[in-house]
Each structure stands twice: as structure tokens, then as C-alpha cells.
Known about the structure:
Number of strands: 12
Oligomer: single chain
Number of domains: 1
Strand content: 15-25%
Helix content: 25-40%
Number of helices: 9
CATH topology: TIM Barrel
Order of helices and strands: HHEEEHEHEHHEHEHEHEEEE
Structural class: alpha/beta
Amino acid sequence: MREKITPYLKKLTHIPAISRQYQLSDNETEDNSYNDPLQEDEHEVVKGLVHKYANRALIKVSYQCAAHCRFCTRIRQIGKPEGTLTIKDIDNIITYLTVNKQIDDVILSGGDPLYCPSITLQILDRLQHIDSIKVLRIGSRLPLQLPSAIKAPALAPLLTHIKEISASKPFYILLHINHPSELTPEAIEAIRHLRSLGVTLLSQTVFLKGVNDDENTLTQLYKELYYAGVIPYYLYHCDNVHGIQHFAVAIARERAIATELTAKLSGIACPTYVIDIENGYGKIPVALNFTNTDANMLSDFNGNSHIIK
């Protein structure tokens, strides 16, 4: 995956927690062996639609983002043009979702759906008319990677449509934020604008070595998110993708940090620490140090056991 960074982020690369997330390093290996630890390709039922969990589905709108995160789970795909959905692809997705009425929750991801507003608008315009779909979600880093885009004319029709949909269906926007230095005044203003749409804002964070693997950093991050009206949702162990293992933090250290966060933060300001099981099924909450148990042995949603390190 080639390096890609916005002019806005470029001005912030003097901050190690920012540069480490976006700039290539000697630790990263690229040998064309990037894997798919979450088995998304295996569960792609039609192009762009991943149906892994019974009542939930994920749409990959494109493989395009404003900037490329060096720790991306989809590093094997991001930046490639063949991921962009066509009208025919969207038709196939809508047909599948219409027929499979057990799917009541759809998340748009990618790539970044807000970075491809015209395609995302087309998809949402079709999804809102499927009665069996009760909840819509979008995952995005655009407000943190290019905050000015949130008020740009190109994004206005999509955001207006999201505001209209949110009046009748729950609509969630999940912001991927890893470090408090990402919450600049510009980013906070972009978040404030998204809140005005009537959506619920949630955050997702990945434990990254040398970026946020300490209690004080994450305590500050979650307090600032809480104050900004963003509800911390998931705190992930970094997925085991070939070539990016240098970002992985030891489970024991993560568990200790997550335990301290739970002890210090308000419940609504504290995310759930999970591991998205490699070649397994489910985002599994990890037992914290309040419980005397072996946190290195987990069972996934299908009851299969996995040893984690």
C-alpha cells in the first residue's frame, strides 16, 4: 500500500503519534503476502458486500481513503481502483439485502464512505427504502484526516441525506480515532457539524505500539471524546496482518491498560476492549484484571477456542 497523506495531516507529522500512523517505516514489510485475518473475502457474497454475521452486513463502498493508515486491516486492498462500486454492483447488493430480510443492520465502510460521497449517497438512497433494515452505520476517518471536507460542497448532499434518514432510522457514524493529538480544533469543529445531523457518534480505537499503548494517553483521548459528544465504542487489539506486526501490543499490557480505564472513566466514556478473532467469528470482549482468569484463551461466537498472544 503506497503512502498517502493529506496536506492537513502533513502539518501534524511532527507529532510522533501522527507520523507513525501514516508514514512508511523500516519496520513495515511489503512482500505481497498481506492476509485477510477477518476472512472478509470468504464472506463476500456479492462484490462489496460482506455478510459474516447473521443479522448484520458490511458494504465496502470503495478502497479509497483520504489518507492511508499503515496498520489497516485491509492493507491488501486500500488504494486499489477495482474496489469502487458500480451501479450494477449496487443493484446486486440491494437485491441481496432485500431478499435476506434477517439483515437489519448495515454498516458502510471501505475505504472511507465519506471520501466517496456520490457513491455513498446512491447506496443510502436505496438502503433507506428496505423496510427490514432498521439501523444504518458509516465508518469514517475523514473528519480526522481532512476536517475541512466535512463542510465542503461535495459532501453537502450526502450529509443532508443522512440528516433526513436519521429522522426515521437510527444512524450511527463511527469515527476511528487513536490519539488525542488527532482532536485538533478543526477536527472538533467537524465533529460538531456531524452531531448537528441528528446522528449518534461513536469512536473506535486500535491499540498501537508507540502511539497509544499507555493509560494516560487513552484516558485523555476518551475524556476529550466524551466531552465532544462522541461515545467510545470499541478498543481493539491490532489485527494480525502480515507486515504490520510492529504495531501489535502485548495482550497483557493492553489488558492492564483497559482495566485502568474502566476504573477511572465514566461507564459511557469507556470503550469495550475486544479482539476481532483471527480466522474466527466475532469481536470478543477480553476479561479485565477484575476477573481472575486466563485472558489468553478465548471462545468465539461459535464456541471455538482460540489462544491469543
